[in-house]
From TrEMBL:
<dbReference type="Pfam" id="PF13561">
    <property type="entry name" value="adh_short_C2"/>
</dbReference>
<dbReference type="InterPro" id="IPR020904">
    <property type="entry name" value="Sc_DH/Rdtase_CS"/>
</dbReference>
<dbReference type="GO" id="GO:0016616">
    <property type="term" value="F:oxidoreductase activity, acting on the CH-OH group of donors, NAD or NADP as acceptor"/>
</dbReference>
<comment type="similarity">
    <text>Belongs to the short-chain dehydrogenases/reductases (SDR) family.</text>
</comment>
<keyword id="KW-0560">Oxidoreductase</keyword>
<feature type="domain" description="Ketoreductase">
    <location>
        <begin position="11"/>
        <end position="199"/>
    </location>
</feature>
<dbReference type="InterPro" id="IPR057326">
    <property type="entry name" value="KR_dom"/>
</dbReference>
<dbReference type="GO" id="GO:0048038">
    <property type="term" value="F:quinone binding"/>
</dbReference>
<protein>
    <submittedName>
        <fullName>Oxidoreductase, short chain dehydrogenase/reductase family protein</fullName>
    </submittedName>
</protein>
<dbReference type="InterPro" id="IPR002347">
    <property type="entry name" value="SDR_fam"/>
</dbReference>
<dbReference type="InterPro" id="IPR036291">
    <property type="entry name" value="NAD(P)-bd_dom_sf"/>
</dbReference>
<dbReference type="GO" id="GO:0006633">
    <property type="term" value="P:fatty acid biosynthetic process"/>
</dbReference>
Length: 260
């Protein structure tokens, strides 16, 4: 049987926020089909990007670790440029880096609002902009949104929800603008996925909250990062060559279920 992803072998991707969670699994999923990966990691991230690189190499893939703060235009440009320095091309971009903080609207000051958007929205724009200006041929981009903002509202997370909703508009606009160059832009709207971020009991649901929420999902559990990563790979591949400007909800049926 032919490998539907064989055409991705030898191509190059940048993946932000790849030290853990969805970003790590996305890097591994791409490496499995021979795509070379620049593993973007924030220096302050407690998770080890060397573990991502190790797993990429275990698949037989090739990658390099690159420190990047997506709040800095210069650092994001250098992140995308690393692909050209290492391998002379850039074909794919995965804008995954994000933070999650809990603030009621009453305690949400301008600094907290601005910091969230700098990472979760403007950081996505910087990543896609840096990639778009360096892609010399057809390519594809995937942005990671969330059901919080992308579908639902989430109390005490207005800044996060606003940023994730903005990612969808950004992705659609770039789909139109970049189509003449053969570059596709899509977004994934993950549901409840078991990651270090969602397992944070202070700013998110925490382990117990994820278990309780999973029982209410039609699929019977929360999702795994690899279940988002395989969708990332699909959206970057020629298997989705006529799909652009879309927001794909991957949530085990959560948003289709009428609440009890």
């Amino acid at each position: 049987m032919n490998n539907p992803y064989e055409h991705m072998r030898g191509k190059v991707a940048i993946v932000s926020g790849a030290a853990s969670g969805i970003g790590r699994e996305a890097a591994m999923s791409l490496a499995e089909v021979g795509t070379r990966v620049v593993i973007g990691t924030f220096p302050g991230d407690p998770h080890d990007p060397a573990e991502t690189l190790r797993r990429v190499q275990e698949t037989g893939g090739t990658g390099v670790v690159h420190e990047v703060d997506v709040r800095s235009t210069g650092e994001v440009d250098a992140f995308a440029e690393r692909a050209l320095v290492e391998w002379g091309r850039l074909d794919f971009a995965v804008a995954n880096a994000g933070v999650l903080r809990k603030h009621s609207i009453a305690e949400l000051d301008d600094a907290a609002w601005d910091d969230m958007l700098q990472v979760d929205l403007t950081g996505v724009m910087r990543t896609l902009r840096a990639a778009a200006t360096r892609m010399t041929g057809p390519g594809a981009m995937v942005s990671i949104s969330s059901i919080a903002g992308g579908v639902y509202g989430w109390g005490d997370h207005a800044h996060y929800s606003a940023a994730k909703a903005g990612v969808l508009g950004l992705s659609r606009a770039l789909a139109v603008e970049l189509a003449p160059r053969g570059i596709r832009s899509n977004a994934i709207v993950p549901g409840l996925i078991e990651t270090p971020q969602s397992s944070d009991p202070v700013n998110s649901l925490g382990p117990d909250g994820l278990v309780a929420a999973g029982a209410k999902i039609p699929w019977g559990r929360v999702g795994r990062p690899d279940e988002i990563a395989t969708v990332v790979r699909f959206l970057l591949s020629d298997e989705s060559r006529y799909l652009t400007g879309q927001s794909l909800v991957v949530d085990g049926g959560l948003t289709t279920k009428m609440q009890d």
